[in-house]
Amino acid sequence: MAGERRHRVVIVGSGFGGLFAAKALRRAPVDITLVARTTHHLFQPLLYQVATGILSPGEVAPATREILRRQRNVEVLLGDVTDVDVEGRTLTAEAPGTTFTVGYDSLVVAAGATQSYFGNDGFAAHAPGMKSIDDALELRGRIFGAFEMAELETDPVAAERWMTFVVVGAGATGVEMAGQIAELAHRTLPGEFRRIDPRTARILLLDAADAVLGTFGDELSTKALRRLHQLGVEVELGMKVVGVDETGIELVDRYDKPHRVECMTKMWAAGVSGAPLGARLARAAGVETDRAGRVVVEPDCTLAGHPEIFVVGDLMSLDRLPGVAQVAIQSAKHAAGQITRRLRGEPTGQPFRYRDKGSMATISRFSAVASVGKLRLSGFLGWLLWLAVHLLYLVGFKNRVTAVLHWFVSFIGRGRSERTVTLQQVLARTALIERDVSEPERVLRARGGR
Amino acid sequence: MAGERRHRVVIVGSGFGGLFAAKALRRAPVDITLVARTTHHLFQPLLYQVATGILSPGEVAPATREILRRQRNVEVLLGDVTDVDVEGRTLTAEAPGTTFTVGYDSLVVAAGATQSYFGNDGFAAHAPGMKSIDDALELRGRIFGAFEMAELETDPVAAERWMTFVVVGAGATGVEMAGQIAELAHRTLPGEFRRIDPRTARILLLDAADAVLGTFGDELSTKALRRLHQLGVEVELGMKVVGVDETGIELVDRYDKPHRVECMTKMWAAGVSGAPLGARLARAAGVETDRAGRVVVEPDCTLAGHPEIFVVGDLMSLDRLPGVAQVAIQSAKHAAGQITRRLRGEPTGQPFRYRDKGSMATISRFSAVASVGKLRLSGFLGWLLWLAVHLLYLVGFKNRVTAVLHWFVSFIGRGRSERTVTLQQVLARTALIERDVSEPERVLRARGGR
Lengths: 450, 450
Prior knowledge:
The structure is a homodimer. Chain A is of the alpha/beta class. Chain A has two domains: 7-37 and 79-115 and 273-344, FAD/NAD(P)-binding domain (3-Layer(bba) Sandwich), CATH 3.50.50; 121-270 and 358-433, FAD/NAD(P)-binding domain (3-Layer(bba) Sandwich), CATH 3.50.50. Chain A is 36% helix and 24% strand. Chain A has 14 helices and 23 strands. The first copy, chain A, has helices at residues 16-24, 47-51, 57-60, 64-67, 133-152, 156-162, 172-188, 218-231, 276-285, 325-344, 379-393, 397-412, 423-435, 440-446; strands at residues 7-12, 30-36, 74-78, 80-85, 90-95, 98-103, 106-109, 113-115, 164-168, 202-207, 233-237, 240-245, 248-252, 258-262, 265-268, 272-274, 295-296, 302-303, 306-311, 316-317, 359-364, 367-372, 375-377. A six-stranded mixed sheet of chain A has the order 3-2-1-7-19-18, with helices on both faces. In chain A, strands 11-10-9-15 form a four-stranded parallel sheet. In chain A, helix 1 packs parallel to helix 10 and helix 5 packs antiparallel against helix 6 (156-162). The two termini of chain A are 41 Å apart. Chains A, B: This is NADH:ubiquinone reductase (non-electrogenic). Chains A, B: It is an enzyme of class 1 (oxidoreductase).
């Protein structure tokens, strides 16, 4: 076999799409290069637990090369893919201080999505999103830091502003964040402060739509709303955000009446758009992107006219499929299957069929809503299902064990083990605001000098 | 008792000195304000395990206010103390966007030490120290990042530069770092890379002195040296660092001959100097600082002419005591005892007597050296003692449990659970280099705007 060149598959991204595409090709006669902007695989469904001090970054973001260590046909490279030459079948990637190109026979693009501010990128500095470990650590620093600042504040109006937390977007991530901040304020922090009472913190969950967890259906949406009220979360629906600044947020309600909420800590879980690579790839290949910047693909997840290029996961626009882990995993497996069939000389072009395995969201400890097929679970039963599914999907034995331990500490006890705030968060925030950087990519690129 | 003003003790710092001073006053009829620059208590002896991916920040840096939650006579405030008015008995502290003053009847200054570059502050950007969680995360990013960059590098000379790690300073921290990087290269990372062999990494441990762990005595020093050689660490003694730049380090040997080592990753564990607050306090109170910027105190840890001001721990200059945890803990307890005696009307001024409980350093898993009284332990026995002592002193039950679990993963297995590298490290580094900031204090202050 020496010297024989095997079919070369390049995968872009180390999220659910990229990782599962690589794994699904473990027995295929191919050489795989996985290129990603981070060195870790992010288990995004638990990111809110990093942002609220329950889990450590390592537990939800193990090193990609550690996960793929035993799969000898994969190499993992750190790089931010900036361009794809669809004719020459090569892509260009940048890493700190260096640029490199990689050639492919088949390409699987699973570059994911970034937070979308619907054209108001200036909101980002004041209301970070929840898409990366950096986002989660930034929010963790802001949330715990806000209580610290309130304890110092002598002006009651300013103190109230520090004690007001606004979450924009009442999908799963927003509901989970609001619920966890309420548990922080009511269970973890009381007793730790002498001047303020953390239980008086105000937590607002806003959405322009008229329901929380709208995609879960009326029954679960109503139950989630009731549980949020029990936790002390104020839910304001039909509210559109029109402005975000350092000390507050500007809204208009459904009658176009303006409102302002004074608050220092804002977080954005309201929308996503495809990674910038998507638009560049679409332009190069002569295909469309949808309104959310996702690449329009053929039914088999390839680009029109380019059967060797697959786009999967959050960056893929197909049949209005949602940007959830299961779509990424299943479309990645579909792409891997198509590549394998082609190598075997079997007919390809089979359409991707998504099997909805259901969705779930935790609202607080011991309480979650879950929708699986026709089954609707809520409360403790929903939470048990949540626990089982997340343990099953968390990568690696040791991460499961330590996560269970931290859950035990947080759910049975009242503590949060992972709440260390570092100066790096302060520095990064200052750098971001000063440079008006809203995309981490630009920063990675700006770093070239080192 | 209502309305009666109790004796007010202000403690500066949340390290071993600050925390143990507060705890020692738990039954005293005083109101305590602890002011610190970070919101956590750092268990510094295990910091190198954060830098090398074994432990998470939360495990070695629990929130100070969580530790002191049940001690109702303490309040904890976030603030960087910038000045002390020794006549007016008040101090001024800064927090992001705010400045506040606190009055005291007794003051315990336990502000600790920062890394010292012996006048060459420009080294800091290229060779971070090991004094804070930020330092450890920065080094973690650089160490794991160096292997990533080597995997990308096509020029063999540049790749070798990424695969060369230099630790300056062969005291406990330097020896522990060098040993852990060797274990990373030889146990954790092999198999994860496809182009480089992590086992070919070169790890250099440098010191200007002529022994490693000089303070441990000849027998243990020799044993430590032998174990480091077994691990593949090159130890170069009698080497003075005269220059540090992005791609290498300049040295002169004991015959004044110049040498250069090409290396991207450098870390500094060579010396410390008292926190800047020390010099300001000494000036205000009219006392001296020693060559390392530590405040010269009376035998009872007070300042001459100011029996109400104590300086303890790493910032204290007394009898050439070393900057170790036990000195900080014992001097803090002494200061607390003196305050209690004064309040009871008992005579004060008793000199502080340090009881040396010994010292220890891990070199690799299952191997440590320990010097306790006349006892000298090395190898597995030394390591068992290390394990027992560190479990005993780690703060909090849950931190003990998760640390043991992570040690199990790393020592019995080969993994490192906590190796997530974030963009924040990239941003912080760029910001530090661009602004030529060598003291975190300046950054905290510069942040005022938010």
